[in-house]
């Protein structure tokens, strides 16, 4: 058995949190990462097995094949999610059917019963229905499994029961400490409208991915502009192409130097403590053999996504800026996968009064399906639970993508909201305002540990039972000898971990103290070898490959990838060609598309840097010509 830290402490903390936000804002850097197309239940639903407070699934959730047939075959939610291909439906109509089971949107709360039926309409072999009614086992997503345990997950319920449940597994010991609130996609629609909401709190009326408009660029004010106007810095670390260039403003010359190739710059800037106030990390959207996509978009391997999250986390963790960083990972939309939490369908304001296109004339009065969101910061209290924005700032407020700009506005004291939507969205700056100093025991750290974290380390190991035994015995030995140094314990725990046979059998676990032993709080490891082994152990777990075989780089490009190609065409000046937009990219394979993008992006930024040097008006956007010459045009009169 492990030591139980506890019992009423977290309860007290929750209370404290709601009414007392005393600590001033410690966050100077917000890092945002938007993954692709997965629902909360699909990714994190089964984490409920590790922590009952997570509003996930039990397996009793089901959807009928036909909503109108009471005797219909039912699909129960399973834990067999693995590699998913093809892509389930996530158009406006498809999502309406998933949420309401029909075209009638009057039900409140929505029954969330049309996922299997909608999938069946796309693939009548039932394979897709099974796919959308499935979630990942936590062990397949080991990085999230750890992050969920250490930091905030935006989910729903506050569970008092949790803290009173005795835990006799080490996993429970550490998994218990997390934040739980709920977070929805901003629009019940596909990728791009939701991605637009993330940094601008509106999609400018878009309810689908409109390639021509995306290529021309959406004109609204973004959080990047607000941050910049307030004299703060922002930066976008891109891989194939920055999808943030779908915001027209970001193409302006004044922002050219805000874009950095991830591979060359991200680790370097983090190491030098130079990450900007608002930092966006973009994935590889193109799946090639040498550089597999890591955006979690089906059919890409989530293993790559896990590796990427781990890399970004560990980079931030090692940065001198770590103590002032808040790292957010969210998913743009649910990608057609089932989620059991009814999407809020009342009291949601239109951001800007712009109505969606016919035939739906959507007024942006409903949110999308719940998606996974994880907040990470050393300022987030391990052991605190919060549920939803709690009627603030309005009684109907929820967490959704606009909560990012709303929270950034508060953290950075920006003068105004972007739209009515971020003015309404719940903010979560409270989660970083309860501690008086940052945690020093986050995974991936160096040298300083709490005893409870050591159990985490050791429990990660395969020989769990023995290791737990060794650990508890050592801890117990220490309790009996107050002068035992912490270093000694750590060293011996490691020795025990590496060679469990060398320690004597454990005493009855029942005789162990119920509380974490008090060891004078911290333990410092001075020996280099010890540090090394601890560091290795303390890294986030290494994910394993899920997809068999590698990327098919000769495949045709997906819709999303074609939108990116059209963006690349605009950057490169090929949009003047008669083949634009319809034909551009249609005949390209994924590999060719990637090469085309790489070239377009490189040229666009090169030309931008040159124009900037030449003193061209910074409000302008560089317009390339297919002939490779460069001219600058006023930003307002370009493109169809
Ligand atoms: C829902 O609307 C679509 C068109 O948007 C139509 O094709 C479909 O038949 C309708 N379904 C039902 C159940 O009315
Ligand atoms: C599936 O669709 C095919 C072709 O549209 C049809 O021939 C077949 O009968 C359908 N199967 C089921 C189970 O509905
Ligand atoms: C995810 O979103 C993009 C954009 O809507 C779309 O093209 C894609 O098909 C969606 N689903 C998947 C699995 O990609
Ligand atoms: C972060 O803060 C902790 C606690 O104050 C301190 O021990 C640690 O050295 C700091 N880390 C960095 C990178 O500044
Ligand atoms: C949508 O709006 C258009 C133009 O405002 C109108 O002609 C049409 O009837 C509306 N459609 C619906 C379904 O309300
Ligand atoms: C307690 O620990 C100290 C430091 O490791 C050691 O020198 C001492 O012998 C121990 N005492 C007993 C009774 O084990």
TrEMBL record:
Record carries keyword Translocase: no
Gene Ontology MF term list: phosphoric ester hydrolase activity
Domain of life of the organism encoding this protein: Eukaryota
Signal peptide: 1-24
NADP is among the record's keywords: no
Coiled-coil positions: none
Listed GO biological process terms: phospholipid catabolic process
Keyword terms of this UniProt record: Hydrolase, Signal
A Pfam family it matches: Phosphoesterase
InterPro entries reported in the protein's UniProt record: Alkaline_phosphatase_core_sf, Phosphoesterase
UniProt similarity note: Belongs to the bacterial phospholipase C family.
Protein name stated in the entry: Non-specific phospholipase C2
């Amino acid at each position: 058995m492990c030591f139980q830290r506890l019992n009423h402490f977290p309860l007290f903390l929750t209370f404290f949190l709601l009414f007392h936000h005393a600590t001033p804002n410690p966050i100077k850097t917000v890092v945002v990462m938007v993954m692709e197309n997965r629902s909360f239940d699909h990714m994190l639903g089964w984490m409920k097995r590790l922590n009952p407070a997570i509003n996930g699934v039990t397996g009793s959730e089901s959807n009928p094949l036909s909503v109108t047939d009471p005797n219909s075959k039912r699909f129960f939610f399973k834990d067999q999610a693995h590699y998913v291909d093809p892509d389930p439906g996530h158009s406006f109509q498809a999502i309406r059917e998933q949420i309401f089971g029909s075209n009638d949107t009057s039900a409140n709360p929505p029954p969330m019963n049309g996922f299997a039926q909608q999938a069946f309409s796309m693939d009548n072999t039932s394979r897709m229905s099974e796919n959308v009614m499935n979630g990942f086992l936590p062990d397949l997503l080991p990085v999230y499994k750890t992050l969920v345990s250490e930091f905030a997950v935006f989910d729903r319920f506050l569970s008092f029961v949790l803290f009173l449940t005795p835990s006799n597994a080490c996993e429970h010991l550490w998994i218990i400490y997390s934040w739980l609130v709920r977070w929805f996609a901003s629009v019940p629609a596909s990728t791009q409208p939701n991605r637009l909401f993330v940094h601008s709190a509106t999609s400018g009326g878009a309810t689908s991915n409109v390639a021509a408009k995306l290529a021309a660029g959406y004109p609204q004010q973004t959080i990047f502009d607000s941050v910049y106007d307030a004299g703060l810095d922002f930066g976008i670390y891109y891989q194939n192409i920055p999808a943030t260039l779908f915001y027209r403003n970001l193409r302006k010359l004044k922002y050219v130097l805000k874009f950095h190739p991830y591979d060359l710059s991200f680790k370097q800037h983090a190491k030098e403590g130079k990450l900007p106030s608002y930092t966006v990390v973009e994935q590889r959207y193109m799946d090639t053999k040498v550089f597999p996509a890591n955006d979690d978009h089906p059919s890409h391997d989530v293993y790559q996504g896990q590796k990427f999250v781990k890399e970004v986390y560990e980079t931030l963790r090692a940065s001198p800026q770590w103590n002032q960083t808040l790292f957010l990972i969210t998913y743009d939309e649910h990608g057609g996968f089932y989620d059991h939490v009814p999407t809020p369908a009342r009291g949601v304001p239109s951001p800007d009064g712009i109505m969606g296109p016919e035939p739906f004339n959507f007024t942006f009065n409903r949110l999308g399906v719940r998606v996974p969101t994880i907040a990470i910061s050393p300022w987030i209290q391990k052991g605190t639970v919060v549920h939803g924005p709690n009627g603030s700032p309005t009684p109907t407020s929820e967490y959704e993508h606009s909560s990012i700009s709303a929270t950034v506005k508060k953290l950075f004291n920006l003068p105004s909201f972007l739209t009515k939507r971020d003015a309404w969205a719940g903010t979560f700056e409270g989660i970083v305002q309860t501690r008086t100093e940052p945690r020093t025991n986050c995974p991936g750290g160096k040298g300083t540990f709490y005893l409870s974290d050591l159990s985490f380390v050791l429990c990660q190991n395969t020989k769990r039972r023995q290791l737990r035994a060794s650990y508890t015995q050592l801890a117990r030995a220490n309790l009996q000898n107050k002068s035992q140094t912490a270093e000694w314990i750590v060293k011996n725990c490691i020795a025990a971990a590496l060679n469990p046979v060398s320690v004597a059998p454990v005493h009855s676990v029942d005789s162990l103290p119920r509380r974490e032993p008090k060891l004078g709080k911290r333990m410092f490891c001075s020996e280099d070898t010890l540090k090394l082994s601890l560091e290795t152990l303390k890294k986030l777990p290494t994910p394993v490959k899920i997809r068999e075989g590698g990327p098919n780089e000769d495949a045709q490009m997906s819709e999303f990838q074609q939108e990116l190609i059209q963006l690349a065409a605009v950057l490169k000046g090929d949009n003047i060609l008669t083949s634009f937009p319809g034909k551009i990219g249609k005949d390209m394979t994924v590999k060719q598309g990637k090469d085309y993008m790489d070239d377009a992006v490189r040229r666009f930024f090169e030309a931008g840097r040159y124009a900037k040097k030449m003193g061209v008006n910074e409000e302008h956007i560089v317009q390339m010509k297919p002939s490779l010459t460069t001219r600058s045009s006023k930003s307002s009169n370009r493109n169809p």
